[in-house]
Structure formats: C-alpha cells, structure tokens
Amino acid sequence: RSGISKACRYEPQANATYAELARHYDTAILPARPVKPRDKAKVENAVLIISRRILAKLRNRQFFCLYDLNEEITKLLIDVNNEPFQKNPEHCRKSLFEEIDKPALKPLPSLPFEYVEFKKAKVNIDYHVECKGHYYSVPYILVGKTVELKITNKIVAIFYEHKSIATHMRNHKRGAHTTVTAHMPTKHQKQLEWTPGRFLNWAASIGTETVAMVKNIIQKKKHPEQSYRACLGLLSLAKKFGPQRLETANGIANKTKSYNRTTVLSILENNADLIEQNQEEVQTKNINHKNIRGSEYFN
C-alpha cells in the first residue's frame, strides 16, 4: 500500500498505518511533491546502489527460507556500507553514520512497533461492528453511527468522534461475536425495541413452524440480541413470498434442523414448499370411485 493515501503538493495525507509508525518512533514524514522525483534523489540513488550491489548478485541464487535470504542480504549490505567512497576514500557509509547520524538519533521506544490497520464501520442494529469477519460490540446508543476501528494483532480499539468507546481482545473466529454486557441496553429505545418476545409474537401470527424456527435461531446465540438481524431477515420473507409459503418452508427446514434464513430462502426460491403442499393435498384428498372399496370392506 502506498505511504501517501492522498497526494497533494501542499497538504499530502499519509496512510494511517504509516502515520502511526511515524508517531511511534517520533519521526516526521516529508513526502516528495507529486511528479517530482528529484525531491528524493538520494533515496532513488540508494535504491539503485542496492539493486546493483545486492539484488544483482543474488538474482541467480535459490533460497528455501526467509532466514537464509536475510542472512545473505545482511552480509552484502555490510560490504556496501564498509566500502570507501571513490571521491573520499577516508570515509565510508558506516563511518559517516557513526560520526554524523548516530549521535543525533533518539533511543528506540521500549516497545517495538505493532502493525496496525484502520477502517470505518457502521454500527448494526445489534450494536456490533464487523472487523475481519468477526463482530465486536459498542454502546447500543451508537446504532446507525459510523465509527473508526484501530486493529492490531491483539487488540481492536473502537473510536467515535475521536473518543475511545470500546476496546476488545482480537478474536480471529469468523462469524462469531465478542460482546461486552455493559454495551447491551437495559431498556431499548425506539430503534432498539426488538426483543425475543416481539419476534416470537410476530412468528406466531404466521404459524407454529415459524415460531419453532425463530426459537431455535435465538437459542443458538449467547445473547438474544445477536439473533435479531437473522430473525428480522427470516420474518421479512413473508412480504415477498406470503405467510403460508413461509410457514411451509420453515416446516421443511425444521425437519432437517437447518435453523437459518439461508436454508428457508433457498426452499422458497426453488419452490420446494409448493411441492410439499401439493403432496399433502394429494394425500388428504378423498377420492370416490366405484372400484375403490374403502377400509370398511375389510372389516
């Protein structure tokens, strides 16, 4: 990724991760002007030297691990830095570094830099935000707001309007939730009036199979609030396919213990529920014919 996310001659914007690295080591970022490579002529020349003196020597060699490659690069780099200058043979890169640069350097921070990423996310109705496939809670009053996430290998810190609102230990399990009980509402406001009872009452207006499906979806989650989006998505299928079809589809899914919206939607889109209904109608239909004797004949 580029070090500068937005190029500008006067106010360039550094990549957030790059800027965090600079803050950690207390150094400054001074970008070259756009389309002005001469602003960093010494850097370009250093790249050329390394390409010729190190990469060119290694281009035909094969390495089987990163450690061996780094070890060989280190040896060649020492040779480059110890080689005397042509115009000033009394000095080399290492001697000038020891004489000029090293005395001006500050001590390194006590802790090494930890790679960090930044992203923006919108808080869902279940007051969680998505990060790398996992969901982290924030205070429920921020539902619908856009927050900023600071992501390291161990921590996920969440900010709203530059203020810290939540910090979680990083969890790499995809599809799972990390929820702080304090973030959960004790009394939902208008946009958060969803409760298990409300979803079950809604399901009851459709049918018993739908109630069973909603119950199982809610019970699968540690916190009921984490199931609200799934329940909402399931019950909203009645608008598109009708309550009766949804009830039949839920019955089919319940038989296979597939308690999720994806299965129910697949049943509806493939008209599997209509086939089920037709079979039931054929089985329950009374057929009168002179060649059909009926069960009483055998008594």
Automatic annotation (TrEMBL):
InterPro entries in the record: IstA-like_C
Domain Transposase for insertion sequence element IS21-like C-terminal: start-end pairs: 108-179
Pfam families hit by this protein: Mu-transpos_C_2
UniProt name for this protein: Transposase for insertion sequence element IS21-like C-terminal domain-containing protein
Organism: Genlisea aurea
